[in-house]
Design a protein that fits this description.
Structural class: mainly alpha
Distance between the termini: 57 Å
Largest sheet: none
Number of helices: 5
Order of helices and strands: HHHHH
Strand content: under 5%
Shape: elongated
CATH class: Mainly Alpha
Number of domains: 1
Helix content: over 70%
Number of strands: 0
CATH superfamily: HPT domain
Length: 138
């Protein structure tokens, strides 16, 4: 049997990723629900003076997971926005109204991208969005 050509190996790998993509879409939607729920719990903690540790950790871990997985399935813009959220939370900012607003904006943006199934890097508009979100999250 002759060795496989690189283009045949690549075609098989691309087909395998494509077959897994629909399952990942469902997983991404589930992660999005986790982010939304954690963001709500973070707001509740701020209102009641409760502990923010668990919702912040859940936001961080989930955004980190999205950051690590979404690009594999062609969701580069979602990866980049998740990275912004993840890095902001890594700094453990104080739980102020400004922090809550930044978290809310990033989670809402991710929600829109996931709900609309936005693939790729988003072109020039996506890059402007990222630039703006990076400034807001800084």
């Amino acid at each position: 049997m002759p060795p496989e050509k690189p283009e045949d190996i690549l075609a098989r790998a691309q087909a395998a990723v494509a077959s897994l993509k629909e399952g990942y879409r469902e997983h991404l939607r589930s992660d999005m629900e986790t982010l939304r729920d954690a963001a709500l719990r973070l707001e509740e903690a701020a209102e009641t003076g409760g502990s923010s540790e668990e919702p912040v950790q859940e936001l961080f871990v989930t955004s980190h997971n999205i950051k690590g997985q979404a690009g594999t399935f062609g969701y580069e813009l979602i990866t980049d926005v998740s990275d912004i959220l993840c890095e902001m939370l890594r700094e453990r900012p104080p739980l102020t109204e400004e922090t809550l607003e930044r978290v809310r904006m990033l989670v809402d943006t991710l929600g829109e991208l996931v709900d609309q199934d936005i693939e790729g890097a988003g072109g020039a508009l996506g890059q402007k969005l990222l630039e703006r979100l990076r400034k807001i999250a800084a």
